[in-house]
């Protein structure tokens, strides 16, 4: 471990790859001989255009995104997309189906109520969001415009392992917290959206991947910034985009490609998650993860201590050992280790060793 750095288990903004940060540091003052920082460039100048075009091209390679889709680099976080999606895909009276597997899906559902007629056709709330439904059991409205899912619920640690094929309507997914953590068949989706600040960059960038034939149908009240057609027609440069954040995402995409692409990244993520879940499951109940095994997230691992009075001590001692941000979300308590792409295996190994030691001292 670099003595200057902690292992940061935050759910987001999250840790970034060390080599990416160092590259950005080296280029901060003078980007590649331009005599400027990326923060100082015109977003319409040739230097920044080369940055955003390369970022898009690399993301297309990573996720194998076809020309049938637009890739947009937007602002406002995934939360803004909770409104933009219904505004772009339906009329105020259109029915829309939501599968609510956690707090983020619920937030998206509630926001959509302002712009269309969403229905939660399944909710895991009564089981504290620890499950994903069987797709065969989903009863969709035959007139639904789209089915919305949250691919990975960051707070509850529940992740879709495969995706439903909607019986009616389009498939829309919030992939904020597992974006670029594994390969995805983009062609199954009408829209994929993600805030960047977990796996691919700093907060301030929101990525939307949308099928081109869906552009141009926004409701009349749609603010111009939320109209995907405006953004697509202007290559995400309708107004000043989050230039530095897009540059950072571009560096991360380059790094993911250099690692061998998302199949390789997924292998590493599986290895880290397996190590941590095994440590929890083999602790004889000292640690517990409430999520059903088959849908446990590779990214966010929530766990509790049997002796809940020790949780504050666990978090404090871990922080002393330079493992930070392990407190669970305020709505669920306990602990949560977020182990996104940029968390090295060594970070998870250190956490697991600490957990075993803590258990030996407190069991
Ligand atoms: N969706 C998911 C799955 C998230 O984890 C988050 C934030 O943590 C959001 C949406 C909201 O993202 P933002 O803060 O970018 O609006």
TrEMBL record:
Cellular component annotations (GO), alphabetically ordered: chloroplast stroma
Ranges where the Aminotransferase class V domain occurs: 6-351
Reaction catalyzed: O-phospho-L-serine + 2-oxoglutarate = 3-phosphooxypyruvate + L-glutamate; 4-(phosphooxy)-L-threonine + 2-oxoglutarate = (R)-3-hydroxy-2-oxo-4-phosphooxybutanoate + L-glutamate
GO biological process: L-serine biosynthetic process
One family name in Pfam for this protein: Aminotran_5
Reported cofactor(s): pyridoxal 5'-phosphate
Pathway(s) it belongs to: Amino-acid biosynthesis; L-serine biosynthesis; L-serine from 3-phospho-D-glycerate: step 2/3
Assigned keywords, A-Z: Amino-acid biosynthesis, Aminotransferase, Pyridoxal phosphate, Serine biosynthesis, Transferase
GO MF entries: O-phospho-L-serine:2-oxoglutarate aminotransferase activity; pyridoxal phosphate binding
InterPro entries in the cross-refs: Aminotrans_V_dom, Pser_aminoTfrase, PyrdxlP-dep_Trfase, PyrdxlP-dep_Trfase_major, PyrdxlP-dep_Trfase_small
Known EC number: 2.6.1.52
Similarity section: Belongs to the class-V pyridoxal-phosphate-dependent aminotransferase family. SerC subfamily.
HAMAP family: SerC_aminotrans_5
This protein's name: phosphoserine transaminase
Organism of provenance: Jatropha curcas
């Amino acid at each position: 471990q670099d003595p200057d750095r902690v292992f940061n288990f935050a759910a987001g903004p999250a840790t970034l790859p060390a080599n990416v940060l160092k590259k950005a540091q080296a280029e901060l003052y003078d980007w590649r001989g331009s005599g400027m920082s990326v923060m100082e460039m015109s977003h319409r100048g040739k230097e920044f255009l080369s940055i955003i075009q390369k970022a898009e091209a690399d993301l297309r390679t990573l996720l194998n995104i076809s020309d049938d889709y637009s890739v947009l680099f937007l602002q406002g976080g995934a939360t803004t997309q909770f409104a933009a999606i219904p505004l772009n895909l339906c009329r105020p009276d259109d029915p829309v189906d939501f599968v609510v597997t956690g707090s983020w899906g619920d937030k998206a559902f509630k926001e959509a109520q302002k712009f269309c007629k969403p229905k939660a056709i399944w909710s895991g709330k009564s089981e504290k969001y620890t499950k994903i439904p069987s797709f065969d059991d989903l009863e969709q409205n035959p007139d639904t415009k789209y089915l919305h899912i949250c691919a990975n619920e960051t707070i509850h640690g529940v992740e879709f392992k495969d995706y439903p094929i909607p019986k009616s309507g389009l498939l829309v997914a919030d992939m904020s917290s597992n974006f670029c953590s594994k390969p995805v068949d983009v062609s199954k989706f009408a829209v994929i959206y993600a805030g960047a600040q977990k796996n691919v960059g700093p907060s301030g960038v929101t990525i939307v991947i949308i099928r081109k034939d869906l552009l141009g149908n926004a409701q009349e009240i749609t603010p111009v910034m939320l109209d995907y057609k405006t953004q697509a027609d202007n290559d995400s440069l309708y107004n000043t985009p989050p230039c530095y954040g897009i540059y950072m995402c571009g560096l991360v995409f380059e790094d993911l490609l250099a690692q061998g692409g998302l199949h390789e990244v997924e292998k590493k993520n599986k290895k880290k998650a397996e190590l941590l879940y095994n440590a929890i499951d083999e602790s004889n109940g000292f640690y517990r993860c409430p999520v059903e095994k088959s849908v446990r997230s590779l990214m966010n691992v929530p766990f509790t201590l049997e002796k809940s009075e020790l949780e504050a001590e666990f978090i404090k001692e871990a922080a002393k050992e330079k493992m930070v941000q392990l407190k669970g979300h305020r709505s669920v308590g306990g602990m949560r280790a977020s182990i996104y792409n940029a968390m090295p295996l060594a970070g998870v190994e250190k956490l697991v060793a600490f957990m075993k030691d803590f258990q030996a001292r407190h069991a």
